[in-house]
Write a structure and sequence with these properties.
Blueprint (H helix, E strand, L loop, with lengths): L12 H18 L6 H9 L8 H16 L5 H10 L21 H17 L25 H17 L63 H14 L10 H7 L5 E6 L3 H18 L2 E7 L4 H13 L3 H6 L7 H13 L6 E5 L6 H12 L6 E6 L12 H15 L2 E6 L12 E9 L2 E8 L6 E8 L4 E3 L1
Parallel strand pairs: 1-5, 1-6, 2-3, 2-4, 4-5
Antiparallel strand pairs: 6-7, 7-8, 8-9
Helix pairs in contact: 1-2, 1-3, 1-5, 2-5, 2-14, 9-10, 10-12, 13-14
């Protein structure tokens, strides 16, 4: 879909219907595909409120709910779920149409998604396209039915035919049917068969309007064939680049047991907020120390100043309260340790970024910050740490939705995301690549049990926890 720096002040009913339908077709075709960027682009960026047509809004809501439950989605069970919700399918609307077609590129889909969000934010009401005034020719046709109507009808018919073979992936211009519009075609003498009934528009707003002359056809793209052998080397190289990517936590025994942490989502459950924040900050710092890893710490529980004090306390082995209250003498061994630890940390702390927030954390903000984090001259991996899953935007939904959003983000950006929560029910989340929980083992001792997705047995690591120094030691 062509991009423009200036968006039109209006949008046609047919164009909006085509946009919404194309987005839903893409979602239906990818919803059962693990790690699909197209799927997570839609689920991560849009909500049901971004859809204008009630039936399409209901379809999106039902798809999101089925995906969250881990259901395998096909047209029959999607239609069954829609009927359970009490929604009536309008005449001529078929769920099966949403499961037939070709996939757009990520760039094309991004353009559609942005257009829908812009319309939703602006509250723009779609309008019926005004009639086009044509310049009279020397010998105008005697009846519209001989020229204008056949062109419009042929467009519908060709869109339907292409839908069954190789339909267009983007709704380039407003089209009256559920399918995206096709190039202008000169009609044959015979009157074509009637097209499928299009999706009804909102009541009282859409009225039949004269057909609009389609824009000039675009040049056809030449089909290019390449053998599997020609593409095989690049495929292997791309596959090899994704192998062996892991992150060390800095805890030797834990890393040996787990083999490091792979990109994905790790949920950490702990009823003690103070303890889990200290653990996450220590892991963040240790990952930055271990090598070329850039770490983003999203802080809602403690401000930057407090986190800096805790880092110094942990590194120097000096009480955080003594440092904060200024109880150390400048010539004391304790202060010398603090100064020495601070100077030594200056280099690796260049790879640690702390972003403070207090209210709701929008997933779009996390995505933007993570992308900026990855834009470094050195080839460094990225880790994102969220100290409170409860603060992640979920648009009135449950914590499971927030976890699903972060999982989608981790997969689309190929990064590791650590997220803390106090809700133990999330240990059963299907979106967690690693589900872990802190327990008190004995006085001064805590244990972390980690279960990796796809494995039957878990890994248990024990630590000595020193809250005065905000420090965990194996």
């Amino acid at each position: 879909m062509p991009q423009s720096s200036e968006r039109p002040e209006t949008i046609g009913v047919d164009e909006l219907r085509g946009l919404e339908t194309s987005v839903l077709k893409t979602l239906c075709l990818t919803i059962n595909t693990a790690g699909s960027e197209l799927k997570y682009k839609i689920l991560d960026s849009l909500s049901e409120d971004d859809f204008y047509f009630p039936v399409l809004r209901a379809v999106f809501r039902t798809l999101a709910e089925m995906h969250l439950r881990g259901d395998y989605v096909i047209s029959s069970n999607l239609e069954e779920e829609l009927q359970k919700s009490g929604g009536e399918m309008p005449a001529g609307f078929s769920i099966e149409q949403l499961f037939d077609g070709s996939l757009p590129s990520l760039g094309e889909l991004t353009g559609w998604v942005n257009r829908l969000k812009e319309r939703s934010r602006s509250g723009l009401i779609p309008t019926v396209a005004p009639p086009v005034r044509e310049t009279p020719s020397a010998a105008p046709p005697k009846a519209d039915a001989t020229v204008v109507k056949p062109v419009a009808e042929m467009k519908k018919k060709i869109a339907e035919e292409l839908r069954k073979s190789s339909p267009p992936s983007a709704p380039a211009t407003p089209a009256p049917s559920l399918e995206s519009s096709s190039p202008a075609v000169t009609p044959p003498p015979a009157k074509p068969k009637s097209p499928p009934t299009p999706l009804p528009s909102p009541p009282a707003r859409e009225k039949s309007s004269p057909a609009v002359t389609p824009p000039p056809s675009k040049p056809r793209v030449k089909a290019v064939l390449s053998s599997e052998g020609d593409d095989w080397s690049s495929y292997l190289a791309d596959l090899a680049s994704k192998q062996g990517k892991s992150y060390d936590t800095g805890f030797k025994r834990l890393d040996q047991e787990l083999g490091g942490l792979a990109p994905g989502l790790m949920l950490l459950v702990d009823e003690d907020r103070e303890r889990i924040v200290n653990f996450l900050k220590q892991v963040t710092d240790q990952m930055a120390v271990s090598g070329p890893v850039r770490c983003l710490f999203l802080a809602s529980e403690q401000p930057k100043a407090t986190l800096r004090l805790r880092t110094l306390s942990r590194l120097a082995g000096v009480s955080v309260v003594d440092i904060e209250k200024g109880r150390l003498k400048k010539d004391s061994p304790e202060w010398q340790r603090v100064e020495q630890a601070g100077r030594a940390a200056a280099e690796w702390l260049k790879r640690v970024f702390v972003y403070e927030f207090q209210d709701e954390l929008e997933v779009a903000v996390v995505r933007e910050l993570a992308r900026k984090l990855a834009e470094s001259p050195e080839k460094a991996s990225s880790v994102v740490v969220v100290d409170s899953l409860e603060k992640v935007e979920r648009k009135g939904g449950s914590l499971a939705i927030a976890a699903s959003q972060l999982k989608a983000l981790a997969d689309s950006l190929d990064v590791l995301i650590l997220a803390a929560t106090t809700d133990p029910t999330l240990l059963a989340s299907k979106d967690a690549d690693y589900a872990s929980v802190f327990r008190v083992a004995s006085t001064g001792q805590v244990e972390l049990e980690v279960l990796r997705a796809g494995r039957e047995s878990s890994t248990v690591a024990r630590f000595r926890y020193e809250p005065d120094f905000c420090r965990f030691t194996e």
